Each structure stands twice: as structure tokens, then as C-alpha cells.
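Anyone have C-alpha cells for N-dimethylarginine dimethylaminohydrolase? Sequence:
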Amino acid sequence: MDLSKPVDQRLAVTQWEELRDLYVALGHTVEMIDPLPGLPDMVFAANGATVVDGRVLAARFRNAERAAEGPAYAAWFRANGFPEVHESGHVNEGEGDYLVTGRWLLAGSGFRSDPAGHLKAQEFFQRPVVSLTLTDPRYYHLDTALAVLDDDQIMYNPSAFSPGSLAVLRDLFPEALTASDADAAVFGLNAVSDGYNVVLAQAATGLIEQLRAHGFHPIGVDLSELLKAGGGVKCCTMEIRTPFTAGHRTAAVPA
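Reply: yep, here.
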């Protein structure tokens, strides 16, 4: 995040549109939610909720400026036929701090989401939760320090986690890819994967090489204008996981 640099709004919209078009070209369905006046950070759709097997845990934001986003996303899911929409009593910033693997829900805390909500999330999603503590303020959400590549594989920044959390990650994911400080700084870990195609910051050249060497198809994109506001590929993308829809669905709001 660099608040000292003005955002070129026209370029930001173009970069967002290119990301949306890329998802469509890859065969994914992109759902849209109308932006609300006074809520510019709605463009970071990942923070609006977490969806697992059609169950929706709506976000509850720490900062008052974003408080209205959680109810807005919850209303969208109810209007679109999702029967289980739960509004948490604990601060949770959606897929910013909740990431889904084949077996676990990886749950981050340290700067935004409340760890007290992790057990509630486990009960709601009926999936084991692995709590992870972030320690570097540059990586304020879990999705800036870790990305899920497929059911069993992740990539992450070791320097972003507490010693205990790092030990847990090394135990659960011994073959995980690890990011250099340079790749982490350009939000290379703020990525979206469908199990083969991995969309990430084009500036994260080291990660791109690693991904290719491990059989993934990395696709570099430029979201430099959105990065100025603290967001990257994953920040702009909520993944909608349902038991009744084949393929990958994403939710997004225009920049």
C-alpha cells in the first residue's frame, strides 16, 4: 500500500476489467455486485464473505469505514438464493483471512480478523480450522502472505508468520512453495488458483518460475494501480464454492 502515490482511476478500472476478462477466458463464471456509494473498498471483493459448500459467512470489518460492506454482500447472497448466510459476531474480513484447502480452513489473525471467530467458523463450515498468526504489518491479511494452489498445495511467505504458525505450516505443507521478500512485497502471494492456472502479480517473477517448475500455469497480470490501495489479484476476487455449481465462480465489484 502506498497512499503517497495518487491512483489513476481510469487505469485502475482498465486493470480490473482485464482481470475479469481473464477469468471469463479461463472458463470461470464471474458474478457481479453493484458498488454502493461511499464504499470504494468494495472493489476488494474477497473481504466481503467466505463461501464453502454454499454456506456464506458474511464479513464483519474492523474499521468503521468498511462496516457497511458486510451487510451489502450478505444481502447479495440472500437475493441470489443462498439459504445459509450467517453474520458473525466476531470481526472477520472474509477471504482476506479465511483460505480454503481440500481439508482445512486456514484462518489468519494478528491485524484484522478476531481469532475468537475461528471456532465459530469451524462450527459453521463443519471443516477443521487451522489458526495462523500474522506478525508483519505489511501482510495484514492472510491472503497477502499465503495462497492456496490446489487441495493440498500452498505457497507462502515464511517471514510473515509467528514461529508457532510457521511450524504448523511446515508440518502440514512440507512441499509448499515459499516466496522471496521481493515477490511477497509486490503481493505475488495475493493470487488466485483454480488448481492449474494461477493468476498473480506479473512482478513476482521468482514465484512465476517456481509455479511453472511445479506444473502450474502462472498467468502474470498488472494490478499496480489497485496495489497502491493495498490490493492485488486475490483481494479483488471472492471465490464462490458451491456444491451445485460445476467449475469456479468468482464475485467481483467494478473498480
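The radius of gyration is 17 Å.
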